[in-house]
Amino acid sequence: MLRKVDKHSGVPAYLQIVNMIKSEILLGNLQKGSQLSSIRELQQIFDVNINTVLKALEKLKSEGYIEAEQGVGYFVKKDFDVDKKIIEIIKTCVTKLKDNSIDYYTAILIFEEVWKNERL
Q1: Residues 25 and 68 reside in one and the same domain
Q2: Are residues 50 and 95 in the same domain?
Q3: Among 48, 2, 44, 38, which Cα is nearest to 21's?
Q4: Which one, of 49, 80, 101, 73, lies nearest residue 17 by Cα?
């Protein structure tokens, strides 16, 4: 879900935008080939400077999530593909965490610890 950036977060606003848009793409809420909102609309949604939106869009473009069509706008790349198994694994993990009464913040702490210490 796209929402205003948290201006009190330690995470730069453009990275918060990148993460929100990535999440929408990975969860399938933004489909391959679908057009993103205009830069001005994104500026209003996120309540940030236009340059912040442009920086986020450029990062998403450089990471292969979106592409730009000059004069038209930004689109989710048509050849972007996410392994659906990954999303299913995450959903299963979340269900198990909830079944064991582990709250969101504790789950994030667990995830961060595993992320830092696991080398695949």
Answers
A1: yes
A2: no
A3: 2
A4: 49
CB 31 within 8 A of CB 76: yes
In a domain, 111, yes or no: yes
- What six digits make up the tokens of 115? 């992320």
pLDDT of the chain, 120 residues: tens digit per residue: 789 999 999 999 999 999 999 989 988 889 999 999 999 999 999 999 999 999 999 999 999 999 999 999 999 998 877 667 788 888 899 999 999 999 999 999 998 888 888 654
The answer to the question of residue 53 being in a domain is: yes
Give pLDDT, residue 120.
Answer: 45
Q: Which residues pair with 66 in a beta bridge?
A: 76
Host H or E run for residue 66: strand 66-69
Tokens representing 11? Answer: 């995470």
Q: How many domains does one find in the chain?
A: 2
* Domain contains 3: no
Distance separating alpha carbons of residues 11 and 114, to the nearest angstrom: 21
Domain range for 67: 13-76
